Amino acid sequence: MREKVSAIVLNAINDFNETYGKQIPLELAEDIPLFGKQGVLDSLGLVSLVVSIEQTLEDELGVSLILADEKAVSQRTSPFRTAGTVIDYICKLMQEETQVCESPSH
Amino acid sequence: MREPVTLITGTRKGIGKYLAEHYIDKGHLVIGCSRTEPDWRVEGYEHFQADVADESAVKAMFSSIKKKYGRLDHLINNAGIASMNHFLLTPLSTVQNVLNTNVIGTFLFCREAAKLMQKSGYGRIVNFSTVAAPLKLEGEAIYAASKAAVITFTEVIARELAPFGITVNTIGPTPIETDLIRSVPEQKLQELIKRQAIPRYGNVEDVANVIDFFLKQESSFITGQTLFLGGV
């Protein structure tokens, strides 16, 4: 399941690049720095990417998740630091809801 | 030019039904919804049976819209309910119903619509308030408060959605002779109408005229505004 989530997140980043003419370095894969000091996204970009990931998760896996709720925002270390941390966070949420993800590797 | 896709809530009767027919006549692909099935059908119109405050029903509806149309150009948040009562006599269940439909429903539809619209970098959202809010109409505390919430909500999200090319505006109709005001005493309505600059009932054409203006492509520089009818 983590592989599927990883593919969804990386595809969403690819779509984001195409839709908004951005150049987030996909070759860094799960190490892509998304948000924060080293992040490539501004807050608006993060909103668009999160919406895109939520929609793809729903379309492809039939899972309805709210990724940027109070829980996510209030975490000491943001789950949106890198593509990898987003993937881990999604898996964690899915585990809590459905117990289907394998243990995160990060 | 492609046909605009226009979603209107509360299309079973009254203003919503009129707006659905109005935009079908203008060549839009019109999608509507209501809690119960309408007793009318028109070609070019698709109906969903959904409570606007039911998050899973609303999400399922938008999922269908996305699959079938792939986009959404306009959202008209017309669905609304009113309650006329002294607030000391108002049951909590009435408050919850009014807030659910008027505030939660508007929130859910704006959120899901904007998710679709932001992908194409274009969208027009029109929310519904009422002159009962600025006129502080006695006996309509919850209704007026819910519609005041819609105005503030619109003003804030207009700013949040502006970078995506989405405008969000509010129309504030005067009393219009529909089921919504059926339970309001005539004397009360006349008192309200007298406070308008133009003292008459509004009509559905007045409402459509304002919405036409907000939906126009040329209205791209107009957002976060509330336009009250009747000179209130």
What does this structure look like?
The complex is a heterodimer of chains A (106) and B (232). Chain A has 106 residues and is an all-alpha fold. Chain A has one domain: Orthogonal Bundle (Non-ribosomal Peptide Synthetase Peptidyl Carrier Protein, Chain A). Helix content of chain A is 55%, strand content 0%. Chain A has four helices and no strands. The longest helix of chain A has 19 residues. Chain A is globular, with a radius of gyration of 13 Å. With 232 residues, chain B is an alpha/beta fold. Chain B has a single domain, classed as 3-Layer(aba) Sandwich (Rossmann fold). Chain B has a seven-stranded parallel beta sheet with strand order 3-2-1-4-5-6-7, with helices on both faces.
Q: Domains counted in the coordinates of chain A: how many?
A: 1
Mean pLDDT of chain B: 95
Q: Examine the secondary-structure arrangement and name the CATH architecture of chain B.
A: 3-Layer(aba) Sandwich
Shape of chain B: globular
The secondary-structure element order of chain B is EHEEHEHEHEHHE
**If you compute it from the alpha carbons, what radius of gyration of chain A comes out, rounded to the nearest whole angstrom?**
13 Å
| The CATH C-level class name of chain A | Mainly Alpha
CATH architecture of chain A: Orthogonal Bundle
N-end to C-end Cα span of chain B: 37 Å
Name the chain pair whose interface involves the most residues. A-B, 10 and 9 residues
Helix segment count of chain B?
6
Radius of gyration of chain B: 17 Å
Largest sheet of chain B: 7 strands, parallel
Distance N to C terminus of chain A: 15 Å
Number of strands of chain A: 0
**Per CATH, what is the topology of chain B?**
Rossmann fold
Q: In terms of quaternary structure, what is this?
A: heterodimer
Coarse morphology of chain A: globular
Number of domains of chain B: 1
CATH superfamily of chain B: NAD(P)-binding Rossmann-like Domain
* Helix and strand composition category of chain B: alpha/beta
Protein name (chain A): Acyl carrier protein
Organism (chain A): Cohnella kolymensis
InterPro entries (chain A): ACP-like_sf (IPR036736)
Protein name (chain B): Oxidoreductase
